[in-house]
Write a structure and sequence with these properties.
Bound molecules: 2-amino-2-deoxy-6-O-phosphono-alpha-D-glucopyranose
Mean pLDDT: 97
Helix content: 25-40%
Strand content: 15-25%
Order of helices and strands: EHEHEEHEHEEHEHEHEH
Number of helices: 8
Distance between the termini: 24 Å
Low-confidence stretches: none
Strand order of the largest sheet: 1-10-9-6-2-3-5
Largest sheet: 7 strands, parallel
Structural class: alpha/beta
Length: 260
Amino acid sequence: MRVVVEEDTEAASRWAAWQIAELVRRKPDAVLGLATGGTPIRCYGELIRLHREEGLDFSRVRTFNLDEYVGLAGDHPQSYRCFMNEHLFGQINIPLENTHVPSGTEDDYDRFCEAYEDAIRAAGGIDLQLLGIGRDGHIAFNEPGSSLASRTRLKALTQETIDDNARFFNDADQVPVLAVTMGVGTILDAAQCLLLAVGAGKASAIRMAVEGPVTSQVTASALQLHRQATVVLDEEAAAWLQRREYYDRSERARRARLSP
Ligand code: GLP
């Protein structure tokens, strides 16, 4: 697992955006796995800037989002579809039909989830999956106890996640208690995983995910089993890592090897 620590939130977010931009330049029809939450907003801001100022072209990119609240239609202001349209899709040149966010209003979720997995496979699989992390170490909505082999399915949210997400809703009672989410197995199928975490609130989760045992109690720890997983952090999110010095040394060695 590659661990990159940048000096602040801006720099970590930019670094994540540049990885995505580099892929899109190299592979204009790349398939991106995207995330929601407070964390990726700055990263998306940098992608928008690169589109506007440097002509980064998203016209052939395809995207699949990790998850959606069950019970919220795509036009609900707190839906993840709405979030993506506002913070990214509406501000770059991606055709909306190339973007996929799980639907929060299906009758038959077994069928829907299978179709979502099929659509990812039909697109050729995800080239790069962007991830955030919950305070308990979850990725997407794979709460503690989720199978590390899980696929797209419905998941009940823990009280901690409901409380954390209440800040986006007017009233805590309005936070949905169920979500449709890619599974840990779905995420691990991506060719590359990029987890972005910023702020002191994520330091404990990052410590568990990066240096703790691989366990379904901290689903982000499954990334330790991925061949190409990178965790990009700001100083605050990295603060509890025990092997920080070693990560920095590895990163310096890597950069020295790459630069002429
Ligand atoms: C939710 C989302 C996750 C996200 C997490 C953290 O649980 N399903 O994908 O990583 O929130 O969000 P934030 O970045 O707002 O801390």
